[in-house]
Amino acid sequence: MPAYEQERLFFVRSTGLLDTKASEAFDRITRLAASLLQVPMAAISIVDESRQWFKSRVGIDDAETARSDSFCTHTIEASNVLVVEDARLDPRFTNNRMVTGAPGIRFYAGVPLQLPTGHTLGSLCVIDTQPRKFNAQEEQLLRDLGALTMAQIDLHQMAGRVNEVTRLPNRAQLADDLTGACSATPGMAATLVLLEVMSNTQLQSAVRAVGIPPLEAALRTIATNIMKSLPDGVDLYHVGETRFAAIYTADAGQPDDIATALLARMSEPFVTQGGITVQLEAHAGLVRFHCVETETADVLRMATTALYQAEAEQRPWSGYSPEFDMPHRRAFALLRAIPVSLAQGEFRLVYQPKLDLHTARISGVEALARWRHPKFGDVSPAEFIELMERTTLIHEFTEWVLHKALEQQSIWRAQGMDLTIAINVSARNLEHPHFLQMLRNACALHRVQPKTLRLECTENAVMTGTLTAATLEAVRAMDIAISLDDFGVGYSNLSCLHSMPVEILKLDQSLIKPIATDERAFTLIQSLIRMGHALGYRMLAEGVETAEVLDLLKHHGCDAAQGYYISRPLEAQALPEFMQAPRGPHFHGAP
Ligand code: C2E
Ligand code: MG
Ligand code: MG
Question: Which of 299, 555, 580, 582 is the most buried (most CB within 10 A)?
Fold first, then answer.
C-alpha cells in the first residue's frame, strides 16, 4: 500500500468518524446539498480501506458500499471536484454496478473532504438518476458545502480535543474520558500508560536532521505501530509532542506485561517515509488505579511522575512510587490550592519598613506576601512564588499584590503617613503583554502617584531579554522606580546592568550580615557602595540584623536599610504604631 494511502487511512480511523451514529449536524448538510442542487441523492462518504461508509445520506438505502464500486474513491484520488455528467458515457463507469443496476446512477458530482494536512477522508457528493450538466456556480456551491462539512468534522469531534499532527484524541480528551469512565464504573480498576517515544535529545536532533514535516509523518507511523500493539477496545491518545497514552482495563493485563509488550514493539527499528531507519528511545510510566471520580487529575499526574522516574533512573519503564513523588505531590497540591486561596482571602501582605539613612526616617515599606492555608499552614513565599512562576498564576497573583499594596498605601496616606511602597515582580510578569496597562490601571484606581511605587526585580528578571528591557523603560517613563533585588549574589554584568533603567541596588542580605565580623565582607560592601554611587545608583541594604551593621552602613554612605533590627515585616494595622514609636539612638542620621 502506498505511503499516502497508509497515512490517509490512519486519519480516517483517528478522526473516529467511521460507524458512528447519525448526526443532525451532518444530515443538515446533505439535505441542503440535495435541495439546493436539486438531486434525489446526496451523501457524506468516508472512504475506508475497502468500503465507503456514509456518515450521512439522503435518498440512499445502504449505509455502506464496496469501495471498488464507489464514485467517491475517484474523487479522493483526483483531489478535486469530480463531475460525471453522464456515467453511461464515461468509460470509467459504464460497467459500474450502480450504473447498470440500482440505483441507476447517471449523474455524479463530488467534492473531496480534505484535511489541512492534504489527506482526503472521503467526499460530499450529489447523485442523480438523470444525466445533467453542472455549471461553475453549482460547482462552487458544492465546494462550499464540502468546506462546511469539514468545518463540521472539526467542530464535532476535534475542536480542542485532538492532536493536530495525528488527529488522535489529546490530553483534554483523555482527562474527560477518564472522568467519564470513572463516573460510569466507580471503583473500576485500570492502568494508565504514558509512553514517551523519543527522548528530548532524540527529538531535538531529529528536528535538526530532517525538519518538522518528516518528523510529523514519523510520529504518525509510530502512532500506527502503537495502535497495532494495543488490545481491542483500548484507545490511543496523543497527549504531548512525543507522548502517547492509553488506558487498560484490569483484565487487559498486568503493568509489567503491558509495558514490556509496548516497549518491545517500540524498540523495533522502523523506516520513515524518507527512507531513514529510526530506533526509538522510548520510556513508559504506568499507574494502576481504582476509579474515584474526583481524583482523575491525580491519576494523570501520577503517571507523569512514573514516566519521569523511569527517565531519571534510566529504566525503560517505571510504576508509580509515592516516595519519588513526594515533592511533586506537594507542589501539585499547593498549585491547586492557590486559586482557591486567592479567592478566599487566604493570602495577605505584610510590610517591612525601610529606613532612610540620611534623614533617619522610615521612608517606605516593602510588601511581602504571606500565605496561611487551612491544611498546609504557613507556606513560605520562596516556595509558592517559585511554583506560581512555573504557571500563568504569577500574573494574577502579582496583580492581586499590586492592588492590595496600593489600596493599603492610600489608607495610610489618608491617616497622614506618606510611604513609598515596593512590590516584588517576577521575570514572567515583565513579559506579560498587559503588564504596563495593569500598572497604569492600578495607580489610577487607587489614586496613587506612580513615583511612590517601586518595583523590585531580581537580576535575572532584568537581564532576560529585549522585551523586558522595553517594558522596564516604559515603567521608568511612568516615573516608577526599579530596584535590583538581591544585588551582589548573581553574576551581574555591570556594563549590561548600566544600560538598564534601574535606580536602586538592593544589596543582598548574605553580603550584609557578616560585615561587622568579617573584614573582607566589609571591604566588599564598602566598595560596592562606592561603585554604585559612582554609577549614579541609590544603595539599599537588606538583612540588617544588628546595631553594628546599621552603624557601619550609615558611616559608609549607604542610602537606606531594611532588616530585622529596624523592623520585621509588619501586619498592615501594626504600622501606624511602629511609625509613632520613638527610635533608639542608632536610628539617627549620620553626623
Ligand atoms: P526579597 O524580596 O529579597 O525579600 C526579603 C526577604 O528577606 C523577605 O523574606 C524578608 O522577610 C526577609 N528579611 C527581611 N529582613 C531580614 C533580616 O534582617 N534577616 C533575615 N534573615 N531575613 C530578612 P520573605 O518574606 O520570606 O520573602 C522571600 C522572597 O520571596 C522575597 O525575597 C521575594 O523574592 C519573594 N516574595 C515575597 N513576596 C513576594 C511577592 O509578593 N511577589 C513576588 N514576586 N515575590 C515575593
Ligand atoms: Mg524584595
Ligand atoms: Mg532581596
Answer: 299
